[in-house]
## 1
Amino acid sequence: MTKQVCCILPNRKTGMQESRDRCCFHRSNAGEAMAWLESVDTLLANKDGLAAFRTFLKSEFSEENVEFWLACEDFKKTKSSTKIAAKAQKIYSDFIQADAPKEINIDFHTKTHISQNISEPTLSCFDDAQRLIYSLMAKDCFPRFLRSEAYKELVKKQENGNQKRWLPFL
């Protein structure tokens, strides 16, 4: 019996992609916001969850983290070697180099390693930095998002909407 793969999601501990046989897209609309409680993986894999998380991060002036993570995910899907070089340079100039417009907070060793290898980029050249940023989002940004008023309000709206759908007289 072959396993039916639903989607590719990042592993919570490593930040690397892996296949899952069930994911957040199988949940009902009314329970989506509650489903995001499960993990940052579930949140990032859901279009509405990602949009809500990005809005929250913008309000905290830290959207560069999720933008970098998304840019890396897109970069890893690149097939053309000329596009790999161009996309790598764009990610580097936007997020890694000193005084980049959306500079991410990574350690000196990781930044130096990327800087030394950016002239001949590979699809894995940002993996260490992506893992660090994923870990930061999972341990810091994601819990703050779940405690935010914006998230609580979203859950409340969905709970009320679900109740009205099943109990039309309310």
## 2
Amino acid sequence: MALRFSANLSWLFPELPALPARLEAAAAAGFGAVEAAWPAGCPAQELRAAAERARVRIALLNMPPGDPEAGELGLAAVPGRQAAFRQGLEAAVRYARAVGCRRIHVMAGRVPLGTERAAVAGEMETTFIENLRYAADLLSQEDMIGLLEPINNRITDPRYYLNTPHQAAAILEKVGRPNLKLQLDLFHCQIMDGNLSRNLETYFPLIGHIQIAQVPGRHEPDSPGELNFPYIFELLESLGYTGYVGCEYAPKGE
């Protein structure tokens, strides 16, 4: 089966200010699906109407990030922010239901400022597991899937809590909910661990969504870089991957 690609509207078509316009541009470029970070400022009915006009599916949305001015990028693993996490989850579910999206990225969040990762790792894991169980129960009522994405802490976000597929897989095993899956961004995976073929094969049963960008520039897959995407795409097809491949990169060319 041929791979299906999703345009990440938070990265692609930056010359267009509004998500509905970016969605229409994605459809014109041949994408059958789109995804986005939390669509703040874009009413759900506007995005749904644009998707229906363009006959494009909304494949994935992020949860609200928390308080960006306070440096937050997700709340699921942040101690003391459980109430805000639940509010954000409920908002994400309402929005996803309204636009017909079945996958929500449950962002782990950052190690709090002024603390050392090693000192708070245990408390953050406990918080993460508790919040994920709550999220899984709520999402199951809507027939939705929650996704965990490891983000590299070498280049992109030194304070992000969830960094590797191995760490995410261990969390998923402890949570033990079938509607929680791994969101594997190959850009982050290559930076943290490399060994992409083996990682894809090892974690394939857990994968609910894949994202791509060339390394190290985070540009188009066919731009110069470390990753051999024709080989990776063939591997995904041979593994029988049927989900979407999210194009989350900063466009360099036209």
## 3
Amino acid sequence: MTADANNVSTRSDKDFPRGIPPPRTFSDPLEHRAFLKFRLAQAYRIFAKYGYDEGVAGHITVRDPIKSDCYWVNPWGVHFKLMQPELLLLVDHQGNIQEKESGPSRYLNRAAYMIHSAVHEARPDILCAAHSHTIHAKAFSALGVPLDPITQDSCAFYKDHSLYSEFRGIVEDHEEGLAIASALGSNKVC
């Protein structure tokens, strides 16, 4: 989805096939923020339901519609299946937790910050980013090859994904986050 300065979809009803509703639009930025936080918490719980979680590894972030230099992320140590909107942290690109807006647990996952701040900064067109450690993805990534378009699921990323082959372990420095964002480029997936 493309976004304007307020992260509201710029596509109109005519841009969507019949029967598929367009994304919601909001005139109130606080209502938009609450909606995005609710959907982000839902996404975490969906990831948990389908096994896209592994301990404290993996993250999903969404850009804030009010503070566009900030994004919402889960606090460190709260299981995906327990995520609620009021628990989320609002973090800027320097890793500063926004005290007034954030949930009660102020533990920021450093790897989440390093990866997602770099991606959101490099790609202002991205509203949401997800990073997961599924068993199947980890096994497939060990092959170091792009996805073949052999299923409808993989066709969604045909010629629109990249490989990150420089992995050096847990992302603990800014350079690693920048390298991941660079490898993503203009693709949907890395």
## 4
Amino acid sequence: MAKLALETSDWIRVDPWESEQETWTETVKVLRHHYSESLRLLQSKNELMKNKRPIERSTEDSLSYQHSVLPELKLLCGADFLQTFKTPNLWKEEHIKEIVEKFGLVCISRAGSDPAQYINESDLLRKFQHNIFLVKEWIQNEISATQIRYALCRGLSVKYLVPDSVISYVAHHNIYTEESEQKNEGDLLQPLKLHNTTVNPLND
């Protein structure tokens, strides 16, 4: 569905690596994978430049080769995502630290969420707040996956909220129906299952 939603985009691509894993994968492991891939591509590019004869290099290539910098990778999320760090047993403390210290976050504003407050209430987030970028959306868009699934489950139209190709895919595969949602009702997120902790399920 992500591929269908982005098939007209010329600057966003979908990487299927996480969905191809046999089991649920922790967020920090996904970030490590993509960062390693970025490093691999950079090294391949540098090797290619090194093997080129100077006359074959453009000025842009030469400057890029001489001043290559390590890639940066940030986790893009809604501002309410920061609040999930406080949910007992949902995150490992060392994973939160690695995410905010090594990678960083770009948090998009969301109605009802106060990311600055979430940061101030956490010693760890406050320590690395220089690596957490808060982005204010001046045109608010409060559409969420939870709301879309809620509408589909009740047979309501989601036209103009998601691409027509995604709507067709959902209908063809008969997903997000009342029956399928009931099967997952009350189901815990995987890390909470591992800790056998009873808390209210999170919405996205």
